[in-house]
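Re: weekly structure request thread

Next one in the queue (258 aa):
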Amino acid sequence: MEAAQLKVEFLRLLKEDEEFRYAVAGLLGFREILDAIRSLQEQVAHNTEAIRALQEQVAEHSKTIRALQEQVARNTEAIRALQEQVRNLQEQVRALQEQVRDLQEQVRALQEQVARHSEVIERHSARIEELARSIQALGARWGILAEESFREAMKGVVERFFGGEVRRWTYHDSEGFVFGYPSTIEVDLLITDREHMLVEVKSSVSRADVFELWRIGQLYEKLTGVRPRLAVISPFVRPEARKAAEELGIEVYTSLGL
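Done, posted below.
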C-alpha cells in the first residue's frame, strides 16, 4: 500500500473508528490527558454538588440568622420597655422620697408643736397648783362665809390665772333645756383670746351641780355655736361630784386632792 493510500486510510480510521482513535491517542499520550479531563470533570461535578450543599447550608444559616435578628429586635424592644419601666419606677421612688421628706418636715413641725404645748401645759400645771393653793388659802380665810363672798373672792383669782375678764352670763331658759322647766340661768363666764370658759364657783360642789354646769355648757354651745371649757372651783368637791366631772370632761379645781 502506498504512502498516500496509507495516509488516507489512517485518517479515515481516526475519523470513523473510535477504538482506533483511542488507541492512537493512547500511543500519542492523549489517553492520559483524556483520563485527567474525565477526572477533572468528575471532580468538578463533585465540587458542584458540594457547592450546592454549601449553598443549601448557607440558605439554612441565612434563615437562622434572620430568625436570630428578629429575636434580637424583639429583645431590644423588650429591653427598651424595661428601661422605660425602670425610669417610671425611679420617678415614683423620687416622688415617694419627696413625700417622705414632706412627712418628716410635718413630723418635725408636730414635734415642735408638741414641745410648745408641753411648755404651755407645764405653765398651766404650775398655775393650777398655784390656783389650788389660792383656793385652799381662801377656804381657810373665808371659812364658812356666804357663797357669794367666796365667788367674788375667786373672781379675781380666776382672772389672774386664766387671763381675760370674768363676767356673769345670764339667760332665761324658756324651753327648760337645763332643768326641764323654764328658768333663769346664771354662771360665771371667762372669755379669753382663745376660748370661752364657764366657771361654777361654789363653797361646795355636789353631783347635781356638776350635771347642771354640763347642761348649761350644752345650752351655751347651742346658743353661741362655741363649745366652752367647763370648770368648777370649790374648796370642797364631793367624791361622786368629782367622778361625774371626770366622766363629763369638766375640770375640777379644789384644795382637797386637786
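The chain has two domains: 1-121, 143-253. Residues 140-146 have pLDDT under 50 and may be disordered.
Next request, please.
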